[in-house]
Amino acid sequence: MAVLPPPTNHNNMKSIQKRNRGFTLIELLVVISIIAMLAASGFAGYSKIMPGVKASTASKTGRDIFTMLSAWAADNDQTFPVATQYSNDAFKELFKKQLVDTEKLFAIAGDAWHETSPSGDKKGPDNNIGTSPDYDQALMPGECAWAYTTGLETASNSLLPLLANGFSETVGTYTKEKNKKGGVFNGMKNAWVSVTGSAKVGDLSPDFKCMEKKGTQTVDVFSIDWGTNPDDVKNPQG
Questions:
Q1: Which end of the chain is more exposed for a tag (fewer CB within 10 A), N or C?
Q2: 168-173 contacts at long range (C-beta below 8 A, 24 or more positions apart)
Q3: Cα dihedral 173/179/180/182 (nearest 10)
Q4: Does some domain include residue 35?
């Protein structure tokens, strides 16, 4: 008696064939589109967060610079060093007093202020400070990314800004163009340190100025409205 083959289960065959056929072109395009949308939303979030993170890191460096300035002031009738034309002028005094021996403290990674440094790119200081007593190679053009308010004392109004990351060519104003001076935080944030050493990350206005609450108003930190004399605020030398 002949043995008949088992009956074919057409439903199972169709299920196996469906599993083995892979993705259709349309399905692949849908998956790629979803991945692209997720990547775009993640990049947008990253772009918004990172300027604040970088500014926060810079503000801590600014606090270290403040510590050196305070030590200088302690030996000079509680008056911070004078900057005649550029912030570099004041910071060089710290080298002469041997309060600091590295230019790296005055750099901000990726800042366009460093494009005119001896290395010719945004890497910043070459750490060649020269020799005692003048240290005439310290903080040459392009080796400093910090602005400075001259004429202040340790007893000055505690709200006043002593340090800030370098502005655009217009002192007091930043830019959103990262490849230009004042754009290192994408025109979203800035880092500044008050005359009493309070390190801050400021929010920028639509016209790229550092704004903080003063009483019931939000005002520009580097303006008369805040109490700052704009003429006393000095950019780095670039």
A1: N
A2: 168/208, 169/235, 171/147, 171/222, 171/230, 171/233, 171/234, 171/235, 172/209, 172/210, 172/220, 172/222, 172/223, 172/230, 172/233, 173/207, 173/208, 173/209
A3: 30
A4: no
The structural domain count of the chain equals: 1
Residue span of the structural domain in which 106 resides: 48-234
DSSP string, 145-213: -EEEE-S-BTTS-TTSEEEEE---SSTT---S-TTSTT-TTTTTEEEEEETT--EEEEEEPTTS-EEEE
Give me the torsion for CA of 160, 148, 223, 159, rounded to 10°. Answer: -10
What pLDDT digit, counting tens, does each position of 99-149 carry? Answer: 999 999 999 999 999 998 887 777 889 999 999 999 999 999 999 999 999
User: Which pLDDT tens digit goes with each residue over 72-100?
Assistant: 999 999 999 999 999 999 999 999 999 99
How far apart, in whole angstroms, are the C-alpha atoms of residue 230 and residue 157?
A: 15
In a domain, 66, yes or no: yes
* φ and ψ of 175, to 5 deg: -145, 160
Query: How confident is the model at residue 46, as a pLDDT?
Result: 47
pTM of the entire predicted model:
0.80
d(CA 138, CA 128): 6
Distance CA(118)–CA(113), nearest Å, equals 12
- Please check whether residue 107 is in contact with residue 139, taking contact to mean a CB–CB distance below 8 angstroms: no
Residue 43 within a domain: no
The continuous run of DSSP H or E covering 32 comes out as helix 25-74
